[in-house]
Amino acid sequence: MHYAIPISLLVLTILAFFGLGRGNYASFGVAQTILRVLAALPLVVSAIFLHFLRAQVTASIIPPAFPARAFFVILTGMFELAGAIGLFVPRLRRPAALWIAVMMVAVFPANIYAAGKVVDGLQFPGVAVRTAMQIAYIVLVLLAGYGIPRLGSRR
Q1: CB under 8 Å, gap of 24 or more: what pairs does 96-100 form?
Q2: Which of 5, 113, 9 is nearest to 64 (CA)?
């Protein structure tokens, strides 16, 4: 049950973003480009340093119920890099932002499993803090890819 509430909050964050915009989003120029960099940077750093160079350590935070944990670590690292690159390709920007947000939900069980633990000298935050961080990141990624939702209006 401790997985259901935070994961539901993440899904609701995505649905709320798209519900507010209803397909109508406003770009916000240079600030949005800076936001893309801020959204892409942690993905690139995570992919390289955690998913590729420290794959076994990263695999240790995936719940044991999941098979082939090392495979999932490499796969999600590749998805992180693809998403980061996609944020800068105009035709791929929106799909990349959506799939990064979905991936943030999909990988969240690992964050819950690792909550409060020390892994390789790093103290993982508790579930509530990590959920808030993940919500903020999902909103950041969606803003970077789509722009600001125009509340309830549709052109």
Answers
A1: 96/145, 97/39, 97/141, 97/142, 97/144, 97/145, 97/146, 98/142, 98/145, 100/39, 100/43, 100/141, 100/145
A2: 113
Give the SS3 label for residue 107: coil
Instruction: Name the nearest CA neighbour of 139 among 17, 43, 6.
Output: 17
What is the token pair recorded at 24? 């109508």
The answer for residues whose C-beta is within 8 angstroms of residue 38's C-beta and 6 or more apart is 140, 144
Phi, psi (degrees; rounded to nearest 5) at 149 = -60, 135
- 8 Å CB contact between 89 and 40: no
Determine the Cα–Cα distance for residues 136 and 48; give it in Å rounded to an integer: 22
**Mean pLDDT, the chain, as a whole number?**
94
Under the phi-then-psi rule, with left for phi > 0, alpha for psi from -120 to 50, and beta for the rest, what region is 25? beta
- Contact between 33 and 135 (Cβ < 8 Å): no
- Residue 151: what pLDDT? 78
